[in-house]
């Protein structure tokens, strides 16, 4: 092993994992991906015991986990408008004017939920995702619902709406 002066190595950061729930957040970065018609948004927790969570994680691990996307394709315009309304309701006087950089520094309420995913090494993990966007008042008052954890099906795929592949089931076992 190489010679390391352990007195110069900082102690590991005591970072707590966020749990599913509603959080008042601040948008820290808004980037337009115009070729694919979506905004890439980074956020951090702005209030409460987890304030600055993603910033602390970045300082400790060089990883920014607070990211979500909002499409402005024709088929997603009403959902994008819902996002904008949550930002407007959370920031009196906010005007968007189709300028994504105006979103930076704005507060918004985010409902975080869990989902399972398949890691590159083949094992399963759990991560948080932005399940809903609400006004900060709705988050503060508890007027939101956290969806149940999204589970992987056998083989690592997501739910298939109640239908399961039957290629490996003998015809005698199929009831129809």
Structural account:
This protein has 3 helices and 5 strands. It is globular, with a radius of gyration of 21 Å. By secondary structure, it is of the alpha+beta class. A 5-stranded antiparallel beta sheet has the order 3-2-1-4-5.
Number of DSSP-assigned strands:
5
Quote the average pLDDT.
87
Proportion of residues in helical segments: 10-25%
Q: What's the N-to-C terminus distance?
A: 64 Å
Q: Biggest sheet, strands in spatial order?
A: 3-2-1-4-5
The Cα radius of gyration reads 21 Å
Helices, by number, come to 3
Q: How big a fraction of the residues is strand?
A: 25-35%
- CA-based shape: globular
Biggest sheet details? 5 strands, antiparallel
Run of helices and strands: EEHEHEEH
Low-confidence stretches: 160-176
Secondary-structure-based class equals alpha+beta
What is the compact description of this entry?
With 176 residues, this protein is of the alpha+beta class.
Key attributes of the depicted protein:
176 residues, alpha+beta, five-stranded antiparallel β-sheet, 5 strands, 28% strand, globular, disordered C terminus
Present the secondary structure layout.
Layout: E1 21-33, E2 38-45, H1 53-61, E3 67-71, H2 77-90, E4 107-118, E5 124-134, H3 136-141
Antiparallel strand pairs: 1-2, 1-4, 2-3, 4-5
